[in-house]
Protein backbone atom coordinates (compact mmCIF):
# COMPACT_ATOMS: atom_id res chain seq x y z
CA UNK A 1 0.00 0.00 0.00
CA UNK A 2 1.23 3.47 -0.88
CA UNK A 3 0.55 6.40 1.49
CA UNK A 4 0.75 9.83 -0.16
CA UNK A 5 0.76 12.97 2.01
CA UNK A 6 -0.72 15.96 0.18
CA UNK A 7 -0.83 19.64 1.08
CA UNK A 8 -2.99 20.98 -1.74
CA UNK A 9 -0.97 19.27 -4.48
CA UNK A 10 -2.14 16.47 -6.79
CA UNK A 11 -1.19 13.00 -7.97
CA UNK A 12 -2.35 10.89 -10.90
CA UNK A 13 -3.32 7.33 -9.97
CA UNK A 14 -4.84 4.24 -11.54
CA UNK A 15 -8.60 4.63 -11.52
CA UNK A 16 -10.15 2.87 -8.51
CA UNK A 17 -6.85 2.38 -6.66
CA UNK A 18 -7.76 4.60 -3.67
CA UNK A 19 -8.41 2.42 -0.61
CA UNK A 20 -8.64 5.11 2.13
CA UNK A 21 -7.97 8.75 2.89
CA UNK A 22 -8.15 11.29 5.66
CA UNK A 23 -8.56 15.03 5.36
CA UNK A 24 -10.22 16.54 2.30
CA UNK A 25 -9.71 14.98 -1.15
CA UNK A 26 -11.18 15.58 -4.59
CA UNK A 27 -11.21 12.82 -7.23
CA UNK A 28 -11.55 13.47 -10.96
CA UNK A 29 -11.36 10.95 -13.79
CA UNK A 30 -8.91 12.06 -16.47
CA UNK A 31 -9.32 11.51 -20.20
CA UNK A 32 -6.81 9.49 -22.21
CA UNK A 33 -4.55 8.44 -19.34
CA UNK A 34 -4.30 12.03 -18.17
CA UNK A 35 -3.20 13.25 -21.60
CA UNK A 36 -6.52 14.71 -22.77
CA UNK A 37 -8.41 14.00 -26.00
CA UNK A 38 -5.21 13.51 -28.01
CA UNK A 39 -4.00 10.97 -25.47
CA UNK A 40 -7.34 9.17 -25.57
CA UNK A 41 -7.15 8.84 -29.37
CA UNK A 42 -3.49 7.75 -29.25
CA UNK A 43 -4.15 5.11 -26.62
CA UNK A 44 -7.13 3.72 -28.51
CA UNK A 45 -5.06 3.49 -31.68
CA UNK A 46 -2.11 1.87 -29.90
CA UNK A 47 -4.20 -0.32 -27.56
CA UNK A 48 -2.04 0.81 -24.60
CA UNK A 49 -5.00 1.45 -22.30
CA UNK A 50 -4.66 3.36 -19.04
CA UNK A 51 -7.56 4.76 -16.97
CA UNK A 52 -6.34 7.48 -14.61
CA UNK A 53 -7.83 9.73 -11.94
CA UNK A 54 -6.46 12.94 -10.43
CA UNK A 55 -6.46 13.11 -6.64
CA UNK A 56 -6.01 16.54 -5.07
CA UNK A 57 -6.39 17.79 -1.52
CA UNK A 58 -5.05 18.05 2.00
CA UNK A 59 -4.34 14.92 4.05
CA UNK A 60 -3.13 11.41 3.39
CA UNK A 61 -4.43 9.14 0.64
CA UNK A 62 -3.66 5.40 0.46
CA UNK A 63 -3.42 3.56 -2.87
CA UNK A 64 -3.22 -0.16 -3.63
CA UNK A 65 -4.05 -2.64 -6.39
CA UNK A 66 -4.81 -6.32 -5.63
CA UNK A 67 -2.20 -6.44 -2.84
CA UNK A 68 0.62 -6.19 -5.41
CA UNK A 69 4.06 -4.96 -4.36
CA UNK A 70 4.92 -1.29 -4.89
CA UNK A 71 8.27 0.16 -6.01
CA UNK A 72 9.03 3.89 -6.06
CA UNK A 73 11.11 5.24 -8.95
CA UNK A 74 12.62 8.72 -8.64
CA UNK A 75 12.99 10.48 -11.99
CA UNK A 76 15.24 13.49 -12.51
CA UNK A 77 14.42 14.46 -16.07
CA UNK A 78 14.67 10.87 -17.35
CA UNK A 79 12.10 8.84 -19.23
CA UNK A 80 10.66 5.64 -17.79
CA UNK A 81 9.01 3.04 -20.05
CA UNK A 82 6.41 0.98 -18.19
CA UNK A 83 3.55 -1.37 -18.98
CA UNK A 84 0.30 0.53 -18.32
CA UNK A 85 -0.95 -2.25 -16.02
CA UNK A 86 2.16 -1.83 -13.85
CA UNK A 87 1.77 1.92 -13.22
CA UNK A 88 -0.05 2.74 -9.97
CA UNK A 89 0.58 6.43 -9.31
CA UNK A 90 2.70 9.41 -10.40
CA UNK A 91 3.26 12.92 -9.18
CA UNK A 92 1.16 15.35 -11.21
CA UNK A 93 4.32 17.06 -12.49
CA UNK A 94 5.31 13.95 -14.46
CA UNK A 95 4.17 13.70 -18.09
CA UNK A 96 2.78 10.45 -19.44
CA UNK A 97 2.58 9.35 -23.04
CA UNK A 98 2.97 6.37 -25.35
CA UNK A 99 6.05 5.15 -27.17
CA UNK A 100 6.62 2.67 -30.00
CA UNK A 101 8.58 -0.32 -28.69
CA UNK A 102 8.89 -2.50 -31.76
CA UNK A 103 7.85 -6.11 -31.83
CA UNK A 104 8.10 -6.65 -28.08
CA UNK A 105 4.48 -5.64 -27.52
CA UNK A 106 3.24 -8.10 -30.11
CA UNK A 107 4.12 -10.97 -27.77
CA UNK A 108 1.80 -9.64 -25.09
CA UNK A 109 -1.40 -9.11 -26.99
CA UNK A 110 -1.55 -5.49 -25.85
CA UNK A 111 -0.16 -3.72 -28.90
CA UNK A 112 3.35 -2.65 -29.83
CA UNK A 113 3.46 0.47 -27.67
CA UNK A 114 4.26 1.12 -24.03
CA UNK A 115 3.50 3.94 -21.60
CA UNK A 116 6.17 6.54 -20.88
CA UNK A 117 6.60 8.67 -17.76
CA UNK A 118 8.93 11.65 -18.03
CA UNK A 119 10.10 14.60 -15.95
CA UNK A 120 11.13 15.16 -12.36
CA UNK A 121 9.24 13.42 -9.57
CA UNK A 122 8.30 9.98 -8.32
CA UNK A 123 6.35 7.19 -9.97
CA UNK A 124 4.96 4.12 -8.18
CA UNK A 125 5.16 0.80 -10.02
CA UNK A 126 3.26 -2.36 -9.06
CA UNK A 127 4.40 -5.93 -9.60
CA UNK A 128 3.58 -9.50 -8.64
CA UNK A 129 6.05 -9.87 -5.78
CA UNK A 130 8.87 -7.37 -5.22
CA UNK A 131 10.19 -5.95 -8.50
CA UNK A 132 13.75 -7.05 -9.24
CA UNK A 133 16.03 -4.36 -10.65
CA UNK A 134 18.52 -5.68 -13.22
CA UNK A 135 21.36 -3.59 -14.65
CA UNK A 136 22.22 -3.72 -18.34
CA UNK A 137 25.69 -2.74 -19.58
CA UNK A 138 27.31 -2.75 -23.01
CA UNK A 139 29.27 -5.84 -21.98
CA UNK A 140 26.25 -7.66 -20.54
CA UNK A 141 22.99 -7.46 -22.52
CA UNK A 142 19.86 -8.83 -20.86
CA UNK A 143 17.12 -11.19 -22.09
CA UNK A 144 13.71 -10.88 -20.40
CA UNK A 145 10.53 -12.93 -20.71
CA UNK A 146 7.80 -10.54 -21.99
CA UNK A 147 5.38 -11.74 -19.30
CA UNK A 148 7.83 -10.80 -16.51
CA UNK A 149 8.72 -7.36 -17.91
CA UNK A 150 7.55 -4.37 -15.83
CA UNK A 151 9.56 -1.30 -16.90
CA UNK A 152 12.92 0.03 -18.04
CA UNK A 153 14.92 3.25 -18.11
CA UNK A 154 18.21 4.46 -19.49
CA UNK A 155 19.90 4.35 -22.88
CA UNK A 156 18.59 0.94 -23.90
CA UNK A 157 17.87 -0.60 -27.28
CA UNK A 158 15.22 -3.32 -27.44
CA UNK A 159 14.96 -6.16 -29.89
CA UNK A 160 12.55 -9.04 -30.14
CA UNK A 161 13.96 -12.56 -30.30
CA UNK A 162 12.21 -15.81 -31.04
CA UNK A 163 13.42 -18.99 -29.40
CA UNK A 164 11.05 -21.13 -31.44
CA UNK A 165 12.78 -24.23 -32.79
CA UNK A 166 11.65 -27.61 -34.05
CA UNK A 167 12.02 -28.92 -30.47
CA UNK A 168 9.61 -26.18 -29.28
CA UNK A 169 7.01 -27.16 -31.85
CA UNK A 170 7.05 -30.85 -30.84
CA UNK A 171 6.80 -29.97 -27.17
CA UNK A 172 10.40 -30.56 -26.13
CA UNK A 173 11.54 -26.95 -25.86
CA UNK A 174 12.09 -24.97 -22.67
CA UNK A 175 8.75 -23.17 -22.94
CA UNK A 176 10.35 -19.74 -23.48
CA UNK A 177 9.38 -19.05 -27.10
CA UNK A 178 10.09 -15.28 -27.13
CA UNK A 179 12.38 -12.89 -25.28
CA UNK A 180 13.14 -9.18 -25.21
CA UNK A 181 16.84 -8.40 -25.62
CA UNK A 182 18.05 -5.17 -23.98
CA UNK A 183 21.38 -3.67 -25.05
CA UNK A 184 23.14 -0.50 -23.88
CA UNK A 185 23.26 1.10 -20.44
CA UNK A 186 20.25 1.14 -18.15
CA UNK A 187 17.93 -0.62 -15.72
CA UNK A 188 15.15 -3.15 -16.29
CA UNK A 189 12.43 -3.98 -13.74
CA UNK A 190 11.05 -7.53 -13.79
CA UNK A 191 8.49 -9.33 -11.64
CA UNK A 192 8.61 -12.79 -10.13
CA UNK A 193 5.65 -14.10 -12.14
CA UNK A 194 4.55 -14.02 -15.75
CA UNK A 195 1.38 -12.37 -17.05
CA UNK A 196 -0.46 -14.25 -19.78
CA UNK A 197 1.04 -13.52 -23.19
CA UNK A 198 0.59 -14.79 -26.69
CA UNK A 199 4.12 -16.16 -26.40
CA UNK A 200 2.99 -18.39 -23.56
CA UNK A 201 0.53 -20.13 -25.87
CA UNK A 202 3.06 -20.90 -28.60
TrEMBL record:
Pfam families: AIM24 (PF01987)
SUPFAM superfamilies: TRAP-like (SSF51219)
Descriptive protein name: AIM24 family protein
UniProt organism field: Streptomyces aurantiacus JA 4570
